[in-house]
Write a structure and sequence with these properties.
This protein has about 475 residues and is an alpha/beta fold. Helices cover about 40% and strands about 15% of the residues. A hairpin with a 6-residue loop joins strand 12 and strand 13. Helix 1 packs across helix 14, helix 3 runs parallel beside helix 11 and helix 12 packs parallel to helix 16. Bound molecules: ligand P61.
């Protein structure tokens, strides 16, 4: 059969609160045109993030009841440890409350002034934790990863030529580890090939530099390898995932993505001395090594989620439903980052709202209009999130791309929800020439996108600028 069905039945549902466009206009005005300031109850389809928003299975909920809350040596920890070890092969498995807590511990150990951490593309929390330690976070994406409409299989790869030159330039002694983020979130959820991971490992090993994976979306990445890379079509996603981890010396993981839970994460590694340091830090900031900032029930749910994520019926449905959204938009000419990634569709706002210059935030204009038109919450990834002011002139320096991310929570929305999202976007696309630009009226000095306040520009306010 051609139709790919959701590989689950729905046992428990959460009602969507319907609002009218008129109500949403008032709500958005009250939220200062920033989707992070909306109440989730005022949102009809929430595509802000795929992180921590998964629907858990009946077995995960059963695991929640079965969780062992002993302070030390909980049976839930041993189930979690065994599952993660079987999947990753790493010797030391250290639970943390989420991905950034694992990053904080890792870079507190290996970071510091004068050190450099290369990555295909650092996610913003990884970059923040590297920089907080005093080290420098360096992105080494391939040129094809930077072209939104280029269709290629593994646009998430790390650039091996740039990595070799980087090691020569900075010196291996100043690079305590390198990372590869799978899939590459900041570049559109694009996958990394096995060949790329293997060759990066070889190059790093020759220089005595350990490789860590940022493994949040490892299963989606493994699924792409199975379907796109020669020699992998007959392997199971689990075998492919194990091979990916076999080239690494450790990983950080936000379990809020591919472990299908609402909270959790871990840090894993082979090195005994590093693990000892990590556990000592864990006790100070997270908790005892057999719970690390999580309840026993959370560990149980992660272990179960890691089994379920490897189900290929699930992954086929998952990747296909993101592609389905991408195809609905592409067919009508809506410009998106191609090909669709694993967890999200990214609208190319520069082309969608070509009349709005970057300093008037074209992505924010689309985000606001998607909300008022259809109650859809999305997020700007462009000049609002990454724009910096030139200290000399005060002018906004924009990043290369202006995007709007539509991240798809796992197992939450059905095909008719996705059809609705397509319909709303096409409606906005048809009226795109009338979308106003926006001005920021209030902002924080760092990570301004979370709290900034905006106002739409009218003809009069634009002239006044
Ligand atoms: C997301 F706007 N991602 O994509 P934690 N590595 C990678 C991630 O994607 C990631 C983390 C590490 C989020 C949540 C998010 O400013 C933001 O468990 C590849 O969230 O600590 C998280 O994992 C960190 C969205 C995080 C943001 C920070 O939506």
């Amino acid at each position: 059969m051609k139709t790919i069905i959701e590989p689950f039945k729905i046992k428990s549902v959460e009602p969507i609160r319907f609002t009218t466009a008129e109500e949403r206009r008032r709500i958005l005005h009250r939220a200062h045109y920033n989707p992070f300031l909306l109440r989730a109850d005022d949102v009809m389809i929430d595509l802000l993030t795929d992180s921590g928003t998964s629907a858990m299975s009946a077995k995960q909920w059963a695991g929640i009841m079965d969780g062992d809350e002993a302070y030390a040596g909980s049976k839930s920890f041993f189930r979690f440890e065994e599952t993660v070890r079987k999947l990753t092969g790493f010797k030391h498995i250290i639970p943390t409350h989420q991905g950034r807590a694992a990053e904080k511990i890792l870079f507190s150990i290996v970071g510091g002034k004068g050190k450099f951490i290369p990555n295909n593309t650092h996610f913003d929390t990884t970059r923040a934790n590297v920089e907080f330690s005093g080290a420098e976070a360096v992105d080494l994406p391939t040129p094809e990863g930077m072209q939104p409409d280029l269709i290629a299989d593994f646009k998430g790869n790390i650039d091996l030529g740039k990595l070799a030159a980087f090691i020569r330039d900075k010196g291996a002694a100043n690079i305590p580890l390198a990372m590869i983020t799978v899939t590459n979130n900041s570049e559109g959820g694009q996958p990394v090939s096995m060949k790329n991971i293997r060759e990066a490992k070889k190059l790093l090993a020759r220089n005595g530099i350990p490789l860590f994976l940022d493994a949040c979306r490892f299963a989606e990445n493994a699924y792409f390898i199975k379907h796109r890379e020669r020699g992998y079509s007959r392997k199971t996603v689990e075998e492919i995932a194990r091979e990916m981890f076999s080239y690494a010396d450790g990983c950080t993981m936000s379990a809020k993505k591919d472990a299908l839970v609402n909270m959790g994460g871990f840090l894993a590694m082979n090195d005994d001395a590093m693990a000892l340091q990590a556990r000592n830090l864990l006790i100070v900031t997270e908790g005892f090594p057999t719970y690390g900032g999580l309840a026993g029930r959370d560990l149980e749910a992660i272990a179960q989620g890691l089994d379920e994520i490897l189900d290929e019926h699930y992954l086929t449905y998952r990747i296909r439903s993101v592609q389905y959204l991408g195809e609905g938009l592409t067919r009508a000419g809506v410009p998106i980052v191609q090909p669709p990634g694993g967890h999200a569709i990214y609208i190319d706002a520069k082309r969608f709202a070509a009349h709005i210059p970057p300093h008037e935030y074209p992505g924010q204009a689309i985000v606001c209009e998607l909300y008022t038109t259809g109650g859809i919450r999305s997020v700007e990834i462009g000049s609002v999130m990454f724009g910096k002011y030139d200290p000399a002139t005060g002018r906004l320096i924009s990043p290369p791309m202006e995007l709007v991310r539509l991240a798809i929570p796992r197992r939450v929305y059905t095909q008719s929800h996705v059809d609705y999202v397509v319909e709303v976007i096409l409606d906005v696309f048809a009226r795109r020439a009338s979308l106003p630009g926006y001005a920021i009226t209030e902002e924080a000095p760092v990570l301004r996108h979370f709290t900034a306040k905006f106002a739409p520009l009218t003809k009069r306010t634009r002239r006044g600028k």
